[in-house]
């Protein structure tokens, strides 16, 4: 099994986090995608003895080395200093990993963080990995889920302004989202009958219509219809009490209605060791749960815990272990 590791924003911590990969014996072959010279410089700054070698598909990997599939930078990168000239490079790295996953060269991909703003400044509209991967694989709908701290939290909507969330939560969207979540929990996470806790949109899950009607008009009808198909769905539940231990014990995953409803809780429980997973894709994709950490880039102090967790989960999702 070969996994592609995209090195992310060249000014961020992604390239040097790759140096930590040699600290473990992985049950898969890991190939870092990015500019060879950049990665070698960052790796040798924190681990001078680690050999950085070109990826050779037909050759056996050298133990203790880091394999790199070269994608050239547009301009030299400086740690901690963003440069829009390299915005397209970041997407070239992603494109190579996606192509390898689609062709079967790679069993999955693990992504280091990118900087959305600098890619947009390069003239490429970019709202995030999740949306980009959906378009690149012609997937009509994908679902973002974060895993960590004993939690699995998926999102009905992702990178939307809060004012746009209620209109975005429609019966078709919720139906498709829950079907994707249920299918991937069953197939990728070995949960044949997953129990899903579903949050309401409004405070107190609408308080019987006194604090909003989305629960009555949209969420509950969808849950009732899918329960009739055999899904185990609990909700809609007030988000402020959904994440208490007693309630969490009743489910295998949570579906939150919007980004900042579910993710603050998960990141509090697991920051530094959480994993971002894209569900619904024809390929396996996991990612770190943190950003580019420009202030840490080049210092050698970046924590590889989330990258390690993302690789472990990608291996498991790809069938590399029970």
TrEMBL record:
It comes from the Bacteria. GO terms for biological process: pyridoxal phosphate biosynthetic process; pyridoxine biosynthetic process. A divalent metal cation binds at residues 159, 204, 259. Belongs to the PdxA family. Binds 1 divalent metal cation per subunit. Can use ions such as Zn(2+), Mg(2+) or Co(2+). Its cofactor is Zn(2+); Mg(2+); Co(2+). It comes from Zoogloea ramigera. Homodimer. Pathway: Cofactor biosynthesis; pyridoxine 5'-phosphate biosynthesis; pyridoxine 5'-phosphate from D-erythrose 4-phosphate: step 4/5. It catalyses: 4-(phosphooxy)-L-threonine + NAD(+) = 3-amino-2-oxopropyl phosphate + CO2 + NADH. This is 4-hydroxythreonine-4-phosphate dehydrogenase. The keyword NADP applies. Its EC number is 1.1.1.262. Catalyzes the NAD(P)-dependent oxidation of 4-(phosphooxy)-L-threonine (HTP) into 2-amino-3-oxo-4-(phosphooxy)butyric acid which spontaneously decarboxylates to form 3-amino-2-oxopropyl phosphate (AHAP). Coiled coil: none annotated. HAMAP family: PdxA (MF_00536). Keywords: Cobalt, Cytoplasm, Magnesium, Metal-binding, NAD, NADP, Oxidoreductase, Pyridoxine biosynthesis, Zinc. Substrate binds at residues 129-130, 267, 276, 285. GO terms for molecular function: 4-hydroxythreonine-4-phosphate dehydrogenase activity; cobalt ion binding; magnesium ion binding; NAD binding; zinc ion binding. The gene is pdxA1. One of its GO terms (cellular component) is cytoplasm. It is found in: Cytoplasm. InterPro entries: PdxA, PdxA_fam. Pfam families: PdxA (PF04166).
